[in-house]
Write a structure and sequence with these properties.
With about 260 residues, the chain is mainly α. The protein has helices at about 10-35, 50-65, 80-95, 100-125, 140-145, 155-170, 180-195, 195-215, 215-235, 240-250, 250-255. Helix 1 (about 10-35) runs antiparallel to helix 4 and helix 7 (about 180-195) packs antiparallel against helix 8. The radius of gyration is 20 Å and the shape is globular.
Length: about 260
């Protein structure tokens, strides 16, 4: 990530604006409408509720019981282990408040736009000043709302674009380096725990370019290693059967949309 940000002050300003917007969203669109009617944190599914409401409630329970003592509670619904673990970790350390989540999500959003900026620099081959304006992408309304809630969006974007930055570095840089390789492995593991479909898309869409850049043997070895990390993440979070076997490799699910 070094060298991507040309001048720190404009990025700091954009991040401070992001934090302010996140605070207003939590206050006006999350806490204010839900607290008076007792739906700020509840196990009930009601009209207008989102998956983030359930993640938030489960994370509170995990934090109250103790994170290390409640690992079996993380995977309570479809691919929830990663997001609930993330939220419960924040709640265990700082206390139960969506504001803390909004702050860390803002950091994740910053990581995503910095990574995206780095990707464009590598692909274009020049440090064009216009790429620096991507810092304001943190304020896109749709993203800004969901990134201020206890949902998967912020961490998905962060790990996806960070992994893609490492992958583009492997493909575009003249010499292979350990940094991008290790970063790609870490990013794929974290992304797989949060959203397996995003990790699969990242791997499948770029496998050809890795093989072409590194040669057939090394490219296939790296692709197999990344796929192995993805499968290991699924296995250790208890999602292997439900996600891979019952969902992606189930022929009955392939034709449900027809």
């Amino acid at each position: 990530l070094a060298g991507i940000v040309q001048r720190a002050p404009p990025w700091i300003l954009a991040f401070l604006v992001k934090l302010t917007v996140a605070y207003l969203i939590v206050l006006c669109c999350w806490h204010a409408p839900l607290e008076p009617i007792g739906l700020l944190r509840t196990a009930d599914v009601y009209d207008g509720s989102q998956a983030s409401n359930l993640y938030d409630f489960q994370a509170m329970l995990v934090a109250q019981n103790g994170l290390l003592k409640s690992l079996d509670m993380l995977n309570f619904t479809w691919q929830s282990a990663g997001i609930v673990g993330y939220l419960a970790g924040i709640y265990s350390i700082f206390g139960v408040s969506v504001l803390y989540v909004a702050f860390f999500n803002a950091v994740m959003s910053l990581l995503a736009v910095v990574s995206l900026t780095g990707i464009l620099i590598l692909l274009s081959g020049e440090r064009h000043p216009v790429w620096q304006l991507l810092r304001w992408g943190m304020l896109i309304p749709f993203l800004a709302y969901y990134e201020a809630t206890p949902g998967k969006e912020a961490i998905t974007h962060a790990f996806y674009y960070f992994s893609l930055l490492c992958l583009v570095s492997i493909v575009r840089l003249p010499r292979l380096r350990w940094g991008p390789l290790l970063g790609l492995g870490l990013g794929i593991i974290l992304l797989s725990v949060i959203r397996t479909n995003a990790a699969l898309l990242l791997l499948l869409a770029n496998a050809y370019f890795m093989i072409r850049r590194m040669g057939v043997l090394r490219g296939l070895t790296l692709s197999a290693g990344v796929a192995g990390l993805l499968l290991a993440a699924l296995y250790f979070t208890g999602n292997f059967q439900a996600v891979l076997i019952d969902h992606y490799l189930n022929p009955d699910r392939w034709f449900e949309v027809l």
